[in-house]
Specification:
GO terms for molecular function: DNA binding; transposase activity. With 393 residues, the chain is of the alpha/beta class. It has 15 helices and seven strands. The protein has helices spanning 5-17, 21-44, 80-101, 106-117, 123-129, 131-141, 197-209, 226-233, 243-253, 256-269, 279-293, 319-325, 329-345, 351-367, 378-392; strands spanning 50-60, 63-72, 148-163, 166-178, 184-192, 214-220, 238-241. α1 packs across α2, α6 crosses α14 and α13 crosses α14 (351-367).
């Protein structure tokens, strides 16, 4: 049967104007393309005969359609069109993952998906679609690591966690590393109900199992016995206690009326971006400060403990990086990013779901802002080489 161009146009117009007509036309067109592609395949591969069709779901104009994908007996035929549809499915999965990672609930993700693609998914379907993303995050969190890191920042944040039908605050440990090229990398995110030096030693040891052999410096808060855990796992690493924490703790000892005055004194004691004072000299200044005020504020006495010299380790490094290593601010910012997303999501059903969300946030940070090297850190390696040469001489 032969039709004129005008008759074909009228026929297509009538179909398009009918109910679900646009989808039907698209479905017929795609099926025809794939059938034609199989015909070309048979011409190039003699003996590979037709072997019926298999169904493949796709979406068009906001509605689902069933495509008839041609098959061949030898199974060597694969329509190019399916690669396009597969790429589209992958893009949609990435969209769902991206929206969830930014704090939207599964219900909100479904609403956005329906608005864009015209298909509604249940919470369970959204969770299923993110199965590949969960596996991707899990693999990333267990990946092999580099052998040497210039700096490790370690810190735990506490998140309300549902476990055994009850909810309590549990610790989520994060380790952020500076690689030799100066770029940052989140090495580990793990869950422990509490925080303690023994647990931190366990996590530092797990880094060694994943390939880490040496660390130049580890920055942490003043957790009791944390220095012992670090010395056990990486005995050659220097240790920096967070200056922001000790300054905050010292100020808390004084009444509000004196904090402005005391704050100025602390700025002088914990000077940064300077070569004018050594770590030992700065610690002696802290001890003098404690001696000056401890008669009136006896709780200050603990700040003159010898372990507190670790608050001044940053003074052993070039001034250009002192501001970046004298606190755990970088990992604190990452903790705030975690909590911002978790707060938007509300209650999480399990520790695994929290780790998935935190891991996805860390992955995005690493692929974006963390991938740019902080060139000042290269001075650490130059200093290390210089010290090695001096020892050898």
């Amino acid at each position: 049967m032969n039709f004129t161009q005008e008759q074909i146009s009228d026929l297509l117009l009538n179909v398009a104007n009918s109910e679900n007509g646009s989808n039907l036309l698209m479905q017929l067109t795609l099926n025809a393309f794939m059938k034609s592609e199989r015909h070309l395949h048979q011409q190039e591969n003699e003996g590979d005969y037709c072997n019926g069709y298999r169904e493949r779901k796709a979406r068009g104009f906001g509605k689902e359609m069933i495509l008839k994908v041609p098959r061949t007996r030898n199974g060597t035929f694969y329509p190019v069109l399916l690669n396009v549809l597969r790429n589209e499915d992958e893009e949609r999965r990435k969209l769902i993952f991206s929206l969830y990672r930014r704090g939207l609930t599964t219900e909100q993700v479904s609403d956005v998906y329906e608005e864009i693609y015209g298909k509604e998914y249940s919470k369970q379907q959204i969770s299923y679609l993110m199965k590949d993303s969960r596996e991707e995050v899990d693999i990333w969190l267990k990946r092999k690591l580099e052998s040497h890191y210039l700096v490790l920042y370690i810190d735990a944040t506490f998140v309300h966690t549902r476990r055994d039908k009850s909810v309590s605050k549990e610790g989520y440990y994060t380790i952020l590393g500076i690689k030799e090229d100066g770029s940052r990398e989140v090495l580990s995110i793990v869950n422990h109900p509490t925080e303690g030096a023994t647990l931190w030693q366990m996590e530092l040891e797990s880094l060694k199992e994943r390939g880490v052999q040496s660390v130049g410096l580890i920055a942490s808060d003043g957790l009791t016995s944390i220095e012992n855990a670090i010395a056990e796992s990486f005995p050659n690493a220097s240790h920096q206690l967070c200056v922001v924490h000790i300054k905050r703790n010292i100020l808390a000892v004084f009444p509000r009326t004196k904090r402005l005055e005391i704050g100025k004194e602390l700025l002088e004691i914990f000077a940064i971006e300077t070569k004018s004072i050594t770590a030992v000299e700065a610690f002696k200044n802290l001890c003098s400060f404690v001696e000056k005020y401890q008669k009136s504020y006896s709780s200050l006495k603990s700040f003159s403990n010898e372990r507190n010299i670790a608050y001044f380790t940053y003074l052993n490094y070039p001034p250009s990086i002192q501001r970046m290593i004298y606190t755990t601010n970088w990992i604190e910012r990452l903790n705030r990013d975690y909590k911002r997303v978790l707060k938007m999501r509300g209650a999480m059903p399990s520790p695994e779901s929290i780790l998935f969300l935190m891991g996805s946030v860390a992955m995005e940070k690493e692929y974006k802002s963390y991938s740019y090297p902080v060139t000042a850190f290269r001075e650490i390696e130059e200093l290390k080489k210089k010290q090695t040469i001096e020892v050898a001489v």
